[in-house]
From TrEMBL:
It comes from the Eukaryota. This is Uncharacterized protein. The lineage of its organism: Eukaryota, Sar, Stramenopiles, Ochrophyta, Bacillariophyta. InterPro entries: Tctex-1-like, Tctex-1-like_sf. It comes from Discostella pseudostelligera.
Length: 150
């Protein structure tokens, strides 16, 4: 006689119910309070660099020959932007942010100027800071954009 063993209720239940484990992400997509971009800190950095790079360094000859000195002012504005960006990265401790700096330099000629920037960003994490410099000959504006990368 053949003996067939029927499965017990316990073995049916235990093999029919799969074990499911749920893993939740431990990665935080928003910056911690200490890792946020603070406009006031970036404004201080940009103001300090604008003043140190422009105060007393742009003479009347440069301004009088503005059309011929365009390359000088272009190189100067790029250098200032690079210095602001490097110092913001070094001092602000915000590794999950992309920093973009725009520096504009113009002549004081009784003319108005408007600098506008538009971007699509997350208002909860992204921000910007501005700084200005002005003397009798020139004006300058620096905008530091901080974009959270996660």
């Amino acid at each position: 006689s053949s003996s067939s063993s029927a499965p017990t209720l316990t073995s049916c239940v235990s093999s029919a119910v799969p074990t499911m484990s749920i893993t939740q992400s431990s990665y935080n997509f928003t910056p911690d309070e200490n890792d946020r971009f603070y406009e006031s800190k970036a404004t201080l950095i940009a103001t300090e660099i604008l003043e140190s790079e422009l105060k007393g360094k742009v003479d009347e000859k440069w301004v009088a020959e503005w059309a011929d000195s365009g390359d000088k002012f272009e190189a100067l504005s790029k250098d200032i932007a690079d210095k602001i960006k490097a110092k913001c990265i070094a001092k602000l401790n915000i590794p999950r942010y992309k920093i973009v700096v725009q520096v504009t330099i113009g002549q004081m000629k009784d003319q108005g100027v408007t600098i506008t920037s538009r971007s699509l960003w997350d208002t909860a994490t992204d921000n910007y800071a501005t700084a200005r410099f002005r003397n009798q000959r020139i004006w300058s504006s620096a905008i530091v954009f901080a974009l959270h990368t996660d």
